[in-house]
Design brief:
- By secondary structure, the protein is mainly alpha-helical.
- Helix content is 42%, strand content 8%.
- Strand 1 and strand 2 form a beta hairpin.
- Helix 2 packs antiparallel against helix 3, helix 2 runs parallel beside helix 4 and helix 3 runs antiparallel to helix 4.
- The N and C termini lie far apart (70 Å).
Length: 146
């Protein structure tokens, strides 16, 4: 266990059986009572609040729609991915593959804080439709050419 001296603010470790007893500080030799329990903050893992973005590194590419000094996240492409997912399910398989790949890329960028995550639901829906559409067209092709 650890303790902090109230006299000199020195920190030191001590064996657990000595908790609650009086002892001398190894730094200032003053008498103090050792704590009985570890501080609650030491027992609870410290995690950032759920919706706090991590510090973003400067982008290594040029975006013509934002100033070069801006550290703002890229705009989302949820509408495009959703459209591609629907087209991939109903019309052509390549649109489904594109929705699947673009959705995976954009979700990773949103998780890293590099892309605006307000379009996350459209991105996830488009990605899922792309996966379903791709599997549907593969299954249909296997059945048709069997």
């Amino acid at each position: 266990m650890n303790a902090t001296c109230p006299h000199c603010s020195g920190e030191f470790a001590f064996p657990e059986p000595y908790a609650g007893r009086e002892s001398k500080c190894p730094h200032c030799e003053q008498l103090l009572t050792l704590p009985r329990f570890a501080p609650v903050a030491a027992l609870v893992p410290q995690r950032p609040p759920p919706n706090v973005r991590r510090h973003l590194p400067q982008r290594q590419f040029e975006n013509p729609y934002m100033p070069a000094h801006s550290n703002a996240p890229l705009p989302g492409r949820g509408g495009t991915i959703l459209t591609f997912g629907i087209l991939g399910l109903l019309v052509l398989a390549p649109f489904g593959v594109a929705a699947w790949i673009m959705g995976n890329t954009d979700l990773r960028m949103m998780d890293a804080g590099l892309m605006d995550d307000r379009d996350r639901s459209n991105t996830q829906t488009g990605r899922i439709l792309g996966i379903i559409g791709t599997c549907f067209w593969i299954l249909l092709t296997l059945i048709f050419f069997q």
